[in-house]
Amino acid sequence: LDLRTEDLRNIQELGCGNGGVVNKVLHVPTNTIMARKIIHIDANPNVRKQIVRELQILHDCNSPHIVSFYGAFMTGGDICMCMEYMDLGSFDRLYKKSGPIPMNIVGKTCCAVLDGLIYLYDEHRIIHRDVKPSNILMNSSGLIKICDFGVSGVLINSMASTFVGTSNYMSPERIKGATYSVKSDVWSLGLTLMELAMGRFPFPEDGRPLSVFELMQFIVNEPSPTLPAGQFPPEFEEICHACLLKDPAQRPTPKDLMLHSTFVQNAVTDKVDIEEWAKSLM
Ligand code: ADP
Ligand code: MG
């Protein structure tokens, strides 16, 4: 599929984050609805071309829990990526609109994210690097998929060298500049699971607003957040605790969680109708 800017008709803006804006668009020649992300990178044209080349790996990332990719190309000085449109949007929006996510849906979301992370690492040696509620998407068929993972080394580097590359979900070892591994994604998953279940970002526990720098210091120096006592099942407390172990050597990998977490094992076999829950939100 040869994507060109001229063939994409804007329908509506879906949101913008650090360094990009996402629109719902129609690809006129194929009559396909897509999500188009435009990333502005202050880099020379060769670097941008290299990023577009590296993004082509996304064509090989095919998994039920990964948002499909249609293509990437340069437009003006920007990088344009077209991906599958997920009509219920991201989990940050879902909980901000309808309150904390029910435990059985958090369970299915956790399984989907872990399955996606395991696929990316096992098949492509890709570490996600940006696990958070806004990068977990859902559609009205009840499918849950992850997006915005770090495929392009050049893009990762050009983002990391800017303030734009920081995030509230960064693990202590990443903030400290130590080795980065799949376990850093597990930290981010732990914060994400707590956020979905509580309906708010779990750090700091008293909810007072912190600047980015205060929050980073807090993550490195203070104990990990915990769930309010007695409100959630013990197996959920257990997985959050394991994900948020500050020492990456102690923290499980995505595969460890998939194989050994009681919360995950229960969620895998749980017969919750995600599609029905999805429809109830529309
Ligand atoms: P962030 O993930 O930091 O919020 P992004 O620029 O990646 O910033 O995305 C902006 C918003 O666009 C997301 O929060 C999400 O709600 C929405 N979005 C991104 N990709 C898609 C998609 N494929 N389908 C539907 N909505 C999307
Ligand atoms: Mg995103």
TrEMBL record:
KW GTP-binding (keyword) present: no
InterPro entries attached to this UniProt entry: Kinase-like_dom_sf (IPR011009), MAP_kinase_kinase (IPR050915), Prot_kinase_dom (IPR000719), Protein_kinase_ATP_BS (IPR017441), Ser/Thr_kinase_AS (IPR008271)
Keyword presence, Nucleotide-binding: yes
SMART domains: S_TKc (SM00220)
Pfam families assigned: Pkinase
GO MF, any single term: ATP binding
Name by which UniProt lists this protein: MAP kinase kinase (MEK)
Organism name: Dimargaris verticillata
Gene, per the UniProt record: STE7
